[in-house]
Specification:
Blueprint lengths: L3 E8 L7 E8 L4 E5 L6 H9 L6 E6 L5 E4 L11 H6 L4 H15 L5 H17 L2 H13 L13 H14 L4 E5 L7 H13 L3 E5 L3 H7 L2 E6 L2 E5 L3 H33 L3 H6 L2 H16 L12 E2 L6 E12 L2 E12 L3 E5 L6 H8 L7 E6 L5 E4 L12 H6 L4 E4 L2 E4 H6 L5 H4 L8 H12 L3 E2 L1 E5 L7 H13 L3 E5 L3 H7 L2 E5 L5 E5 L2 H7 L27 H29 L1 H6 L3 H30 L1
Parallel strand pairs: 3-7, 3-8, 5-6, 6-7, 10-18, 13-20, 13-21, 15-19, 19-20
Antiparallel strand pairs: 1-2, 1-4, 8-9, 11-12, 11-14, 16-17, 21-22
């Protein structure tokens, strides 16, 4: 029996149906990549499965007791508490018990019988339910997603909040996991970890993504939502592309045959009076049916027609940086960077979130003065800047107003075009052009920003995370556009396929403010980069061992360390168990006085030491291969 089934689902929001009598069966272990153009209803479909929406007709049937967790594209406004508390919500009752235990442990005072009793009851419940290992799983996920467990969630940026929601969904280990653009706001290392985590797990996945490498790595089934229908391909992404092309070709041929027959029948019905007197009424009824069928045909969504308005050539030199340094307080962001960017270069900038990639762009463009070193800019630079935060859009204005104010025309390359005609190049219908930006999908906002920017001429194009939320077809068109662009491109992206197809060189962050030049794209960098030094991370990982990849030979010192780690972990866990017994003894709180605080502090220290040991164990085993 399927874990869940969509049975003849239909749903519309006033316009053409987003879902029209669709059915889908999800089996245990499926990893389904859900594809479709921006605005076609992918997020709506996930919300239906999660129970957040009800269909107009049909039913979503789930196996009894099925646990579903989801990562939405939009961040809810009601998130409260710390990151750690929010992530524990993904563990259900075990999470509530862990949260209660930690709160009680902070509050309990020596000699308070009621608080002590509550703490002991909570500890016994955790031991009975076997919830303690889940705490280590939470620590591992927080570590890999670069989240501070003590940070207040309401104060975080939207991107970090989405990582919190992703962590909450992962730790619950649900029967079905729904992920809507999970790689947005993740750096490359984190995306790589997430791929491996999901591939090793037994989770059943239904996910929407624009990241082709992520799709190739995970999808065992590919489902496309097109014109309100679901097309299910029991294959990986690359096979899907071939089969879809064959299907579209067959559909085009069928439409051509149908249209030829319809045209012939229209000629027949318009014949002279004599012919009309003797015509076959059955044939007339068939013509009426064909007319209705043709009228109801839903055309495929068109392709964006992206065009860059190229300015006159810049000087040969675009930017030269020599010994550039830039710090924020005591933190080195850019350290001793020397590089030269020549007209026509397409430079990818790679690094983790918070490494200083946006700061580096501003230094290259002369928007920031270096604290040390020199930046020399070339001549005749006309720069277009694609902002990952979309701050160049007014959310309360309409699509048209963001592009042309109250004017009906827009200047594109110095020539006037009607604003609706120009917006249709970017797949905005006239109705959608009158829509406020705040209700657009993420992909539609990206397309609008591209439409706005591409009215201007440029010879230097700066793209800061341009691929987030774009559908795959628009993404491929943008790649082609950049390939034909004769100017200079500076690109910040975590999309590995996009980097490989666009850039000719990379500036890669390698720690402590150092950005290093490499020739080629992402895969070229992987081949050229030095082997990383393994470093322990003081967080709380799970005890699961990692997938082994890229075998390397351990040094004598590392092999000795790997052999000694199990003994060290055993000793720490023994001490931890002894301290648990102390804390479980009511007499300890009466007799030891201030020693209670010291034991709690040691317990916290033990958790950190164990976390470091497990992370180091994972790293060494991965290196051993």
């Amino acid at each position: 029996m399927a874990l869940l089934s969509l049975q003849n689902i239909s749903l519309a929001f006033g316009g053409p149906a987003l879902l029209e009598d669709v059915s889908l069966h999800v089996e245990g272990g499926d990893r389904i990549g859900l594809l479709g153009r921006n605005g076609c209803g992918k997020s709506t479909l996930l919300r239906l499965i999660a129970g957040e929406l009800k269909p107009d007709s049909g039913a979503v049937v789930c196996r009894q007791g099925l646990r579903i967790a989801s990562l939405p594209q939009d961040v809810p406004a009601d998130l409260t508490g710390t990151v750690y508390e929010e992530v524990l919500c993904g563990l259900g009752q075990a999470g509530k018990d862990l949260l209660r235990y930690h709160r009680l442990a902070r509050q309990v005072h020596s000699g308070d019988e009621n608080q002590l009793k509550a703490l002991l009851e909570c500890q016994q419940a955790l031991e009975t339910s076997g919830a303690w290992p889940l705490e280590q799983l939470v620590g591992q996920v927080l570590s890999h997603l670069h989240l501070d467990g003590e940070a207040p969630v309401p104060e975080l940026s939207g991107g970090v909040k989405r990582r919190v929601l992703l962590a909450r969904a992962l730790v619950g280990e649900p029967d079905v996991l729904l992920l809507d653009e999970p790689t947005n706001h993740l750096d490359i290392d984190t995306i790589d970890w997430l791929e491996n985590y999901l591939r090793r797990s037994s989770l059943t996945l239904l996910f929407v993504t624009h990241d082709r490498e992520f799709l190739k790595a995970l999808a065992t089934r590919t489902v496309e939502l097109e014109r309100g229908k679901l097309f299910d391909f029991a294959c990986d992404y690359e096979t899907f592309l071939r089969r879809r092309e064959e299907l579209m070709h067959a559909e085009d041929q069928e439409w051509q045959r149908f249209d030829r027959k319809l045209a012939q029948e229209e000629v027949w019905i318009r014949q002279g009076i004599k012919a009309r007197r003797t015509r076959n009424m059955g044939r007339v009824r068939e013509l009426q049916r064909m007319r209705e069928e043709r009228q109801q045909r839903r055309q495929r969504t068109g392709k964006s027609r992206l065009q860059l308005q190229e300015a006159s050539r810049s000087g040969r030199l675009v930017a030269e940086l020599e010994g550039v340094c830039f710090d924020y307080g005591d933190k080195p962001v850019i350290k001793d960077l020397t590089t030269t960017i020549i007209r026509g270069d397409r430079v990818g900038i790679i690094g983790p979130n918070g490494a200083g990639k946006s700061t580096l762009l501003k230094l290259i463009l002369g928007q920031l003065e270096p604290q040390q070193g020199d930046v020399r800019l070339g001549t005749n630079l006309e720069v277009l800047y694609f902002d990952q935060l979309r701050e160049q859009l007014d959310p309360d204005a309409t699509v048209q107003q963001n592009l042309s104010g109250d004017q009906d025309t827009v200047l594109v390359g110095g020539k006037a075009r009607h604003v609706y005609g120009y917006l249709q190049d970017f797949l905005f219908t006239p109705d959608r052009a009158r829509t406020p930006v705040r209700i657009l999908s993420g992909g539609e906002r990206h397309r609008l920003l591209l439409a706005k920017l591409f009215t201007r001429e440029a010879n230097v194009l700066v793209l800061d995370e341009p691929t987030n939320d774009l559908d795959l077809e628009t993404l491929e068109l943008l790649e082609e556009l950049l390939a034909d662009f004769t100017g200079t491109v500076l690109l910040v992206s975590h999309d590995r396929a996009f980097l490989d197809r666009v850039v000719t060189s990379t500036l890669v962050y390698e720690g402590a403010g150092r950005f290093v030049d490499y020739v080629g794209g992402y895969q070229d960098w992987l081949r050229q980069r030095p082997a990383p030094e393994a470093e322990p991370v003081a967080t709380k990982p799970a005890k699961a061992r990692p997938e082994r990849s890229r075998p390397r030979k351990l040094s004598f010192k590392q092999r000795r360390e790997l052999e000694e780690l199990p003994l060290r972990i055993e000793a720490l866990e023994t001490e931890q168990a002894e301290l648990h017994e102390k804390l479980a003894d009511p007499a300890f709180y009466k007799e030891q006085g201030d020693a209670v605080s010291a034991v709690r502090e040691r317990m916290m220290s033990l958790e950190e030491e164990l976390a470091e040991c497990f992370v180091r164990w994972e790293e060494l085993e991965a290196l051993e291969g």
